Structures are given as structure tokens and as C-alpha cells.
Amino acid sequence: MDRENNSIKLAQWYNQVEKSGLKAFNTITNKTQLNYRTVLNYFNNRSTNASTESFNAKIKAFRAQFRGVKNLEFFLFRLTNIFA
User: Fold this and answer.
1) Which of 29, 38, 60, 69 is placed for a possible disulfide with 75 were both Cys, Cβ 3.0 to 4.6 Å?
2) HSE on the CB side for 2, CA within 13 Å?
3) Is the pTM of this model over 0.70?
4) Are 16 and 40 part of one and the same domain?
5) Which residues lie below 8 Å from residue 6, measured CB to CB, with a gap of 6+?
6) What are the Transposase IS204/IS1001/IS1096/IS1165 DDE domain coordinates in residue numbering (predicted)?
7) How confident is the model over 57-74, as pLDDT tens digits?
8) Nearest to 9 by CA among 39, 52, 31
9) DSSP letters along 33-47, please?
């Protein structure tokens, strides 16, 4: 499918959700509307930011393990050694 066709299908989905009147979909429709290019990129390229999100979670867990960061330079050094 091409980008234009995917864009039309996404707009149709958005309209159907809006017509349904279900308030539970408000958050997802707002996020989809704000990030529609990224959503369309997934369907065109099958690419996601899952690896970035996973790496971010590892950094947060690492930071929480040591209860915060006092020396940013040393923190970045440790991150580089562990995850690079």
C-alpha cells in the first residue's frame, strides 16, 4: 500500500472513532492526530522506536539502581561501558 492510501485509511478510522462517540478513545485519537506521520511510517516501513524505548528503560533502571546521578560525566562513562 502506498502512503496516500494509508493516510486515507487512517483518516477513515479516525472518523469512525469520532462518530462512535466513545470517550475512551479520546486519548488515542489525540495522540494519533498529533503523530500521524510516525504512525504512517510504521505501516510504510514497518519501523518502530521500540529499540530506543528499550534503551531508555535500561537507562532509567540503571539510574534508579544508584538512586540518582551526582556526577554526570561518570554516569555517561558507566553507560558507555555497560551498554555500548
Assistant:
1) 69
2) 2
3) no
4) yes
5) 40, 43, 44
6) 3-78
7) 888 887 777 776 778 888
8) 39
9) HHTHHHHHHHHHH--
